[in-house]
Amino acid sequence: MSRFLSQRLLSLDAYVPGEQPTDMEFIKLNTNESPYPPPPGVVSAINAEEIEKLRLYPSPDGNILIDKLAKFYGVNTDNIIIGNGSDELLAFAFLAFCDKTRHICFPDITYGFYPVYAELYDLPYEQIPLKEDFTIGVSDYFGVGKNIIIANPNAPTGIALKLIEIESILKTNPDHVVLIDEAYVDFGADSAIPLIKKYDNLIVMHTYSKARSMAGARLAYAIASAALIEDLNRMKYSFNPYNVNRLTQVAGIAALDNDDYYKEKQREIIETREDAKSRLRDLGFIMTDSMANFLFTMHPDVSGADLYAALRSRGILVRHWNKARISDYLRITVGTKEQMDLLIAAMSDILSQTHK
Ligand code: PMP
To answer: How do residues 211-247 score in pLDDT, each as one tens digit?
Structure first.
């Protein structure tokens, strides 16, 4: 760090993303990307004509994409904002709704960016412990007197709350913002979008990075009451009005015309996930009932760090955190059936050579 860095930031621990190696071919099961490419309709939408238009700034309000998203979800256009990935929209939400008197809370084990944003903006936050079995203690959030952010399904556990549980949290916190981060909702959980009309304190966030195979395009959207969206726009127009680039907006529009393709791929991923769960259980692995495009799993005979390293040396990248409560667990993205066959073969091989 330089001697010029603000005092305020000296203790900031930045978010550490999963590796994106360029030096070697890995089976990449570490950042929950889709193993499938975007559909042909998205690929052909990024044509020479659109590339020529790169000399022009993109639409700041993303109105064509927002019109299409509004029709897709049956909401009004003033209920939607688009962002450069959910990471950016999360940053806007922390900035817009939290301060020294309006604190924020979230589970102790969840998406690692939440505490980073709280630290970056110097916002007081509380981490509410998950239960022993990694489920969220729903009643811990009743009338909690703080803004709330919950990933549903949660990451890295993959465990989903039911809609009725989310509604019970919303009902008991009418004067605080409840943000449901649905990055992984398309792999089997229920979306809270239908509750938007009933609760003016609810924000639901979706990303194109997982189920829509577009992590590299950086596109996400939040759906909420018009007043909350207006506040988020106030952040966007104070930070980067052109936050979603032209080609990404074009791809995002085309993706909505190809929903059947995505539904089919989501079904395949769910099928592959359930098959991998049962085959890993046969090898003695213990895991949560993940409703996401990843597994959260451990083996009683091998530490998480050893398993991570052994997989890496066999060319398979997964995610491991050296963190209390979860250091023996791995988060493994669900890839293609062939990739999961290779993962399971590697696991059998590692276990056959391991004596704890
Ligand atoms: N929320 C959760 C729970 C995530 O796991 C991720 C992906 N790492 C994000 C948000 C960020 O996604 P995006 O690519 O849209 O920024």
So the answer is: 999 999 999 999 999 999 999 999 999 999 999 999 9
Q: Is 180 in the pocket of ligand 1 (CB under 6 A)?
A: no
Q: Which amino acid is at 322?
A: N
- Torsion of Cα atoms, 192 then 18 then 342 then 328, to 10°: -80
The whole-number average pLDDT for the span 308-320 is: 96
Q: Is the CB of 231 under 6 A from ligand 1?
A: no
> Which amino acid is located at 234 in the chain?
R
Half-sphere exposure of 192 (CA within 13 A, CB side): 36
111 lines ligand 1 (CB under 6 A): yes
User: Which of 209, 202, 37 minimizes the C-alpha distance to 111?
Assistant: 209
- What atom of ligand 1 comes closest to residue 208's alpha carbon? 15
Written as one string, the DSSP assignment of 19-87 is P--SSS--EE-SS---SSPPPHHHHHHS-HHHHHGGGSPPPSS-HHHHHHHHHHHT--GGGEEEESHHH
For ligand 1, is residue 205 a contact (CB within 6 Å)? Answer: no
- 191 CB near ligand 1 (under 6 Å): no
Q: Rounded to whole angstroms, how far apart are CA atoms 257 and 273? A: 26
CB 244, CB 59: distance < 8 Å:
no
pLDDT tens by residue, 140-196: 999 999 999 999 999 999 999 999 999 999 999 999 999 999 999 999 999 999 999
Residue 20 pLDDT? 84
Distance 205 CA to ligand 1 centre (A): 10
